[in-house]
Design goal:
4 copies of one chain form a homotetramer.
Chain A: E1 7-12, H1 17-27, E2 32-38, H2 47-50, E3 62-63, E4 71-76, H3 82-85, H4 87-91, E5 94-99, H5 109-116, E6 130-132, H6 134-141, E7 146-149, H7 152-166, E8 175-181, H8 196-199, E9 204-207, H9 213-220, E10 227-233, E11 240-247, H10 254-265, E12 271-273, E13 295-302, E14 307-314, H11 318-333
Parallel strand pairs in A: 1-2, 1-4, 2-3, 4-5, 5-7, 6-7, 8-10, 12-13
Antiparallel strand pairs in A: 8-11, 9-10, 11-14, 13-14
Helix pairs in contact in A: 1-11, 6-11, 7-9, 7-10
Chain lengths: ~350, ~350, ~350, ~350
């Protein structure tokens, strides 16, 4: 057989967890050829020193951004706020640019300002970017050359709520979403709050109100309703489990909710409805998703009150970041959507 | 100094975690003298074989219930449903009876039936029991001889909500409470869901709706409002962190919430308001409470929406079970309320 | 391109962790086609109920052994002692038989008896089986139709020690190997010792002396020397980290040890020497190996005493069981040795 | 009853884990009255901000060392090397000085130099200090005013080996000790290696050879024998489990080892021999010791080889640091030896 067509990839800011995860997935992707990874701090050292899972898998060394050469795809894995300020520099290097940060997710500069506390550095470019959520934007992603990867907590909230809101089912009451988040979501830099003795046994509410992903979720979800997010850190390293509290009309049953999910997500390759009557794995659990691109969704209704609890689980670094980006790239290039994302996950894990 | 007056204690069902925790605390209590501990399965073996933390602390051996002799205090640590069916047997053995199960918590037999799916075995006795929550029932506990220890998740919900509901502050909207619960809450018996490889990395929603403690919480909390509970198991062994989503009127601020907590809980020895502007320990965290009788409470307001997130953390086996019971006993007997409950908790832990 | 040749696979005893892991790897293997999985207890239920990571990956249902039909490869994942007693039944079903248990690892029936406390049920067959360790038995594995998968702790000990013993380097002193073992090594059945509250925080010596894998390690390792194993359970789910204490002659340096490893393992696709002077990942760590077939090896010398500490890390279910078996099968069939074993591992994890 | 006599205590360097643990224990000690705690970085902030378990337990604020006033007891909880350089400053402030660092543990300045790589700053004072291990130095501790608290890993090694070496039992072969150490042993400062995503799942050999506590252990243990230490970090926060590999003469049995431990440690209040034939808690396990001052000791013999595996478990911050210091102080002052150290430990935990 002939070798598959490959696009060259440069990862900018490749020493963090998001960049490292994109690298891991890309090294196993038949159509991607990572040729450059930047890290100012680690320039000239092998990437496998920072990402030790890649020992024996790549001989790439970090380089500085200043040494970046053109590539087919430039993947930006920089701290929030950094990509937008220098976006011209990066779009000049690659025909396709994928940003893993929050910089190009929000369409409305005023919402950006309200959310991030400063004016967007390149508001005129916002319209060019597609929000990198294949389940909501598959058609726009075809041929897209500017992909703004969706936020991890936002993704777990959006995918749980989208079907019921799209179909106009939910009552116009306050919707609350509580996310249990692993420590990798805070990034690769050590801090007092990530110090193992302070974190290993902790259940720590870190954003009871005011989570920035609220803006993304509101932008993407249909309808006009009050949405409230709360984020809690857990002792897991990866993963987000989100439980959403919402209300359906009188007479709705489990079966109706199931139908709604089926109708909207019927053919989605990375959405699984998990609602099992027996055994111990009855609902979504991030334990099963480390390294996978799945978003597992579940729900349970309270027949007495019309309350429905929606549940979603993802790996924040895969479906929440790098896998979502690869899936979006696959769509944009016309490759099979699951390419490079075949890992099934471990059990036990 | 003279030795303190001591009451003899018999613990019935002492091989589980609740009974073991009561034993641990009682062995360190100057007014309690544990003379009997029962376990059908472990009869004639030292209690320290089952509770290895008590090695060198006690030479007690388990006996069978059939061999129970009279004691001043009989503590029932039986599976739910077992105590009520044989309550006459136990009240005949001791002047004071403390039940750690759910059997005598609910006042209304109809609610009991709706919650536990069967008729209460001794409905005529329900009125004699005091709900063992000192913060709400301190005066009734004075001299009480029938104490029904409050449920662990219920306690975390009740103590978080009581001040704002007592003062009539909350808007009449749906209140949701999400509890993150440690594995010890499911008891000392091994099961598929407690098998370490299946549980260690899990974030598992186990009661999205229909949690039985809803009935307790509704009984104890003032006002008429929809209250919804969701319970999720976490990789911790002990501890519950509950976040409650509720709504306050326009114009309410953090300061007002703080005043409400202060007004209601001002002198409570085991309630701490945790809301710190700096550092990493800003809100309640069960990490700090293992082995202690504290209920740490916190809150945060969303100024844009009137949403308030209430947070409570407890050790499910102490403030959620055995410690709460000891505190209730201390009040009932006129002993200093903190007697035997002085442990401050560990940091780091 | 044409579809690759595929052999049909029947997994006997597929509800445990070893069988489940073989299934996970085989489903992703281009030359293997799993057509049957047995479980007496779970007959007629989907395998994904027991192995929830495989939801959406397979529609296979468990069947009973009595319903087993012929297959090219029969993989036995039964409790130790079960396969040998019925081996005729299984060899009648498949041309190639792979046993994941300990039944056919030991060559000498007397050693089997001393180790397992009973006579081997089929001693006449022992000579037909190849010990499934590709690094030591690659040539014998070519064309092999009876593969006895190596034990997990034994593998970690053997691979750490083999080069220095093969080259005759180690002094004839007592060698001790201490294995830190994850909870999945004890299997999928819940027990008192695997109950999460008893295991999550535990560091529990479970085999200070008398570990059965000592016999395997002695059989496979060259030379005549006293070898002593100690096994300790840790809070991890997967993984074994083994540290070996041994002694090299005067004048030996790190460089010499390194050369020995290189000489013996130079081209091994799944052996990585991990000895890094900087950063935090200086030695082998099972954290990086979940789901992978790597055995990472490291060492450090004490220049003052000639002591060398050898370190090995594996995933007990992959390189320690199912992955090792797949690697052996790949060799036996002439497929590329890494086929189906490409997963790189996660970081962070 | 009259209030007990109290000595005033100043803790120097009280923002770390060792100082915080001493503070926790001292606040509960009837003869100790902590009046000063220093921290340069946290001066003027409440100690409970840094040690949140002490909320509601103390109103002390940190002060700078420059503001230190005289106290009966000065406890030094400074980084290794800091106390000795300024020791005159501290001995001028208090009649009794307890050092929790390594600075005054070694008697021989040459050994200090070989171990710590620099000359001891106050070698003339070394002879004045008592090594703070009550089991070995109880008589010297009576009336002592300079107590050098023993190292944590050293303590676990020394207490395991002392009886068999004191009685001259062990064969003159290499003794190896492997310590599994919790993350709190590395202190309260965040670092790359303590970053939760890098540590939570890790089993990381951090000192395969060259551990500094080797010098302490050699100084304290009788006999002339080669002793080798290896230290491995585990996902626990507290605790050390040490397994020692040693050899006893032909004919020795479990019973003989037991007798040796009994003979030497018969009346020790904080030593427990843990060797149980049934159940899951057969050997020492640090899981049971968090917050306690126990050193649990166990052993198992290999009848075929004369190998004996000794096991010891401690809480590194209590019996390994602050509790050991309090116990030493209790002896020095003639207080009951267990005063302030009564906590039994939790189960489950």
């Amino acid at each position: 057989m002939t070798a598959p067509e490959q696009l060259s990839v440069a990862i900018v800011g490749g020493s963090g967890y998001a960049g490292g995860e994109f690298l891991r997935l890309a090294l196993n992707h038949p159509h991607l050829n990572v040729t450059q990874v930047t890290s100012e701090r680690n320039a000239n050292t092998p990437v496998s020193l920072v990402h030790p899972n890649l020992r024996g898998r790549t001989t790439l060394k970090f380089r500085k951004v200043a040494d970046l050469e053109p590539a087919d795809i430039v993947v930006l894995a920089l701290p929030h706020g950094s990509a937008a300020k220098r976006i011209g520099e990066f779009t000049a290097k690659g025909r396709i640019v994928v940003d893993l940060s929050a910089d190009f997710r929000l369409k409305d500069p005023a919402v950006y300002r309200a959310t991030y506390g400063e004016d967007h550095p390149a508001p005129e470019q916002l319209a060019e970017w597609v929000y990198g959520n294949p389940e909501l934007h598959r058609e726009e992603l075809v041929g897209a050359t500017r992909i703004a990867c969706a936020g991890c907590f936002a993704t777990s909230v959006i995918l749980a709520l989208y079907p019921l809101l799209k179909l106009g089912v939910l009552l116009p009451k306050d919707i609350t979403a509580t996310g249990l988040v692993g420590s990798s979501a805070a990034g690769a830099s050590a801090s007092d709050s990530s110090h193992h003795p302070e974190r290993a046994g902790s259940l720590r509410v870190y954003k009871p109100v005011g989570h920035r992903h609220t803006a993304e979720a509101r932008q993407e979800l249909p309808g006009n309703f009050p949405l409230h997010l709360t984020a809690i850190s857990t002792p897991r390293v990866r993963g987000i489990l989100t439980t959403v509290q919402a209300w359906v009309p009188d007479g709705w049953s489990d079966k109706d909710v199931w139908s709604a999910y089926r109708e909207v997500y019927g053919q989605e390759p990375f959405i699984r409805i998990v609602k099992v009557a027996k055994g111990i794995h009855r609902y979504p659990d991030p334990m099963l998703l480390d390294g996978t691109n799945y978003c597992d969704l579940g729900f349970e209704m309270d027949p007495d009150t019309g309350r429905v609890v929606l549940m979603s689980a993802i790996d924040n670094l895969v479906k929440g970041t790098a896998g979502h980006a690869i899936q979006s790239l696959n769509i944009s290039q016309g490759w099979a959507e699951t390419t490079g994302l075949e890992f099934a996950g471990l059990h036990p894990a």
